[in-house]
Amino acid sequence: MRRSRYFLPTLKENPAEAQIVSHRLMLRAGMVRQSSAGIYSWLPMGFKVLKKIEQIVREEQDAIGAQEMLMPTIQPADLWRESGRYDAYGPEMLRITDRHDRDMLYGPTNEEQITEIFRDSVKSYRDLPKNLYHIQWKFRDEVRPRFGVMRGREFLMKDAYSFDLDFEAAKQTYNKQFIAYLKTYARMGLKAIPMKAASGPIGGDMSHEFLILADTGESEIACHRDFLDNKWLENIAANSDLQTVVNAFTEKYAATDDERDEGAEKALGKDLVVARGIEVGHIFYFGTKYSEAMNAIVTGPDGNDVSVEMGSYGIGVSRLVGGIIEASHDDDGIIWPEAVAPFKVGLINLKTGDDACDTAAEDFYQKLQAANVEVLMDDREGRAGAKFADMDLIGLPWQVIIGPKGVDKGIVELKNRATGEREDVSPEDALSRLAG
Ligand code: ATP
Ligand code: MG
Questions:
Q1: Which among 148, 178, 187, 286 counts the fewest CB atoms within 10 Å?
Q2: Ligand 1 surroundings by CB, under 6 angstroms
Q3: pTM for this structure?
Q4: 87 and 227 fall within a common domain
Q5: CB of 273 within 8 A of CB of 222?
Q6: Residue 360: CATH number of its domain
Q7: Would 2 be classed as within a structural domain?
Q8: What pLDDT shows up at residue 201?
């Protein structure tokens, strides 16, 4: 992509309305634009990141056998009357009336809808288990939408729903999602800690929220110091048995604000870490709550009716865009982990209009593209300083700087955005490293 043609409205000044760094940087880097409170348009570069995050989430869901589908955003109120949640949900639900005076709503989540789809077509235990998911916009009329995409009213969520015959099978499904979540966040360069979360009326301990630590997190959490220890984490993750991994994570203390336990925290002594966290996902086993209320029943092996065991598994896809920035930035701007970067390389032509520079930059640009490396080339006229600042702001993992001095010597400058390291290398070397 050529910067001169790309719709990337970056801002030099900090927008006054942004209170936290990710919001500030997303606005400054031209990723999103607010439409109304908590509702955003995603501009091309922001949208690219959103899609990359979505794709990682999708691949890890597919890898555990979940099947992607797509349910609508608008749902009939009657469905929610069946589960009893239409009245229970409160003012967070956006309620709509259509031209025939039917009550509709913009879905804040999809348990009812998926349960209806399931019950209409699955009648026998032989068709279990089923694990279905979609990645779809949700609407929750939050009291205080804030922090940009972190707490929006309209936001993109991956929500998966599982259907199993009995508790043992449901637990197995839960464990698979637990591990898939760890992998998903790790691929995005995030350390997300699974924490015991409120499990509502069902009780039990099969509800975990995944949080990344950041000073701007909305909730205070507490956990064992080991969760911050990369070696410890790698050791556990290397184990191939699902239950062993889940146990290793869950037997160490880690709790979100309403689940904290004073006694357990005292006992930890110096091993206790109290910090702030951002919830980026939530997995939840709720047994037969919806299947009983909505008649999602299959015939069991013995011929008797069984209400299916369900769970739901959410990931805040749009919140993650902000979350990743909270976890990865410096004073100059965003530092994208490669897996979610909008482009891998930012190519800066320091002297647009100079024949030698233009030729060298154009040649390098073509070669990167031929090697399928995503590249944004700053081919605008303007000061070098402004181009550097702009490139640091948008945070592409690698910068290649082409200027008159280097062109004379047959070299380009290769800069790593995360470490700030710069090296003079031949264009061929730069190319083979970036294409690798
Ligand atoms: P929170 O406690 O942050 O309000 P929640 O527990 O109500 O979230 P869930 O119903 O568990 O949210 O939704 C699954 C995921 O969707 C959350 O883990 C979070 O990452 C994301 N999410 C929830 N609400 C929002 C929101 N208003 N804006 C952006 N993402 C959200
Ligand atoms: Mg939650």
A1: 187
A2: 109, 140, 142, 151-152, 155, 157, 279-282, 314, 316, 318-319
A3: 0.96
A4: yes
A5: yes
A6: 3.40.50.800
A7: no
A8: 59
